[in-house]
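> forwarded from #structure-qc
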């Protein structure tokens, strides 16, 4: 499996089949964890492999009763040796670097498990004292994570990941590209955004139209009731017919006017949408041309004027 495929398709699995995981696969997963980057190449992580189903289930009561412990067929405890990090890096090594080192190892383990067709989930909520007592972990070490593994018995929903341009700052905190597609020359994200804007505008206008139709309908019904009172026969038959006629006629007129307004508004919104796309494509082509001809290109008129101004100065 390609590394990017593994990263993009990995999901947390919390329900596992009863099939035990082969021992050699578990060893490969732990080996991948040992190849993670770490501060000063300390490699101050240690791994405890647990394959006893009863002992894994017993952790259920010490981990906020997470259901994954009831079906997992293997577990790996990732433990940091704090004294080794503190020896070289002081308190920062003990409190920060040890956590970072083990977190990198956990990520490697999760990716390696996924690449071998296994499911895995990272557990961080557990009673440390109970876990330490159960697995005889000394005071100079600390359990950073429990990873549950097994063959998956569920297909998780597709994960929604925040847009990379929302997450990325340039040169300093808070500085973002307003139109990143002009830099990357990929317009798919911008088109998706424009479609969402168009959909919201049309939906908003449709709701306004519906409210207007409901309001006009109630007004026409009231008018029909009034007319019926003056033109009724003894049994009220003609009056009821007149009310229905008047209501339908009035409602049809209101619907026609509102429908025409809706059509014009939607057409104008769609035109704006298409115009925006054309402008973005033009700007993107211009940016591409500037980048591809950065060296040895013919200067633009504005650049020539700028050079002339500098010479005069």
């Amino acid at each position: 499996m390609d590394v990017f495929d593994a990263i993009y398709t990995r999901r947390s699995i919390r329900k596992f089949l009863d099939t035990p995981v082969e021992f050699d696969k578990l060893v490969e997963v732990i080996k991948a964890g040992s190849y993670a980057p770490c501060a000063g190449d300390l490699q101050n992580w240690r791994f405890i492999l647990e394959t006893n189903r009863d002992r894994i289930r017993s952790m259920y009561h010490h981990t906020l009763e997470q259901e994954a412990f009831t079906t997992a067929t293997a577990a790996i405890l990732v433990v940091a040796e704090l004294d080794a990090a503190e020896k070289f890096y002081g308190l920062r090594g003990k409190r920060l670097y040890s956590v970072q080192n083990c977190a990198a190892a956990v990520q490697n383990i999760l990716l390696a498990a996924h690449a071998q067709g296994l499911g895995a989930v990272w557990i961080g909520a557990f009673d440390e004292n109970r876990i330490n007592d159960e697995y005889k972990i000394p005071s100079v070490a600390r359990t950073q994570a429990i990873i549950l593994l097994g063959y998956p018995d569920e297909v998780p929903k597709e994960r929604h990941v925040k847009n990379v341009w929302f997450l990325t700052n340039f040169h300093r905190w808070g500085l973002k590209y307003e139109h990143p597609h002009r830099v990357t020359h990929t317009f798919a994200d911008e088109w998706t955004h424009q479609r969402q804007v168009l959909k919201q505008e049309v939906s908003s206008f449709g709701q306004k139209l519906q409210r207007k139709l409901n309001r006009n309908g109630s007004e026409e019904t009231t008018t029909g009731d009034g007319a019926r009172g003056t033109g009724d026969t003894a049994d009220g038959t003609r009056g009821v017919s007149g009310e229905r006629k008047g209501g339908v006629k009035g409602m049809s007129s209101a619907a026609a006017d509102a429908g025409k307004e809706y059509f014009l508004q939607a057409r104008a919104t769609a035109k704006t949408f298409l115009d925006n796309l054309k402008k973005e494509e033009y700007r993107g082509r211009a940016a591409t041309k500037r980048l591809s001809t950065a060296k040895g290109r013919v200067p633009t008129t504005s650049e020539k004027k700028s050079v002339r101004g500098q010479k005069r100065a």
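QC bot note: The chain has a mean pLDDT of 80. The chain has eleven helices and four strands.
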